[in-house]
Design goal:
By secondary structure, the protein is mainly α. The chain contains 4 helices and no strands.
Length: 138
């Protein structure tokens, strides 16, 4: 029985339910078939609290270590390519036939020289690297 049907059945049997000031009473046990009782809730919550650190640790341990590349220069496209190559190249992330979405940061009414938006040369370099790695045009 879905929550909707249970509530509808309850309202049919107790017409005062849903009024502005209904009498104080609990929902009869017959309408609480799928409800979780307090004891079950506490057990489930306790289990989750105990297991969460273990699951998080196991999940993080299975991942590869983080990799960061730093590239400096005044030519935006060349610097972007150096950074991409520093983390193993675009082919490490993009496989032949993948569809890739490049979402530049463009939320501000400022030029890219202020650092509020991604420079167009950076976007172009990323797109060119994705295409060179085998991404297909959608």
């Amino acid at each position: 029985m879905t929550e909707f049907h249970r509530e509808r059945k309850y309202l049919e049997n107790y017409p005062h339910a849903g009024t502005i000031a209904p009498p104080v009473q609990t929902i009869p046990r017959q309408f609480q078939e799928d409800c979780m009782d307090r004891r079950t809730f506490i057990k489930a919550t306790g289990t989750a609290v105990v297991l969460a650190p273990v699951l998080i640790r196991e999940t993080l341990a299975a991942r590869e270590p983080s990799l960061v590349a730093v590239a400096e220069g005044t030519d935006y496209a060349a610097t972007t390519r150096k950074a991409i190559n520093g983390v193993g190249g675009m082919k490490r992330f993009v496989k032949a036939g993948d569809v890739v979405v490049v979402k530049p940061n463009m939320g501000w009414d400022r030029s890219s020289e202020f650092g509020a938006n991604t420079h167009p040369q950076v976007v172009r370099a990323v797109v060119e690297e994705c295409l060179a790695a085998g991404a297909k045009l959608a």
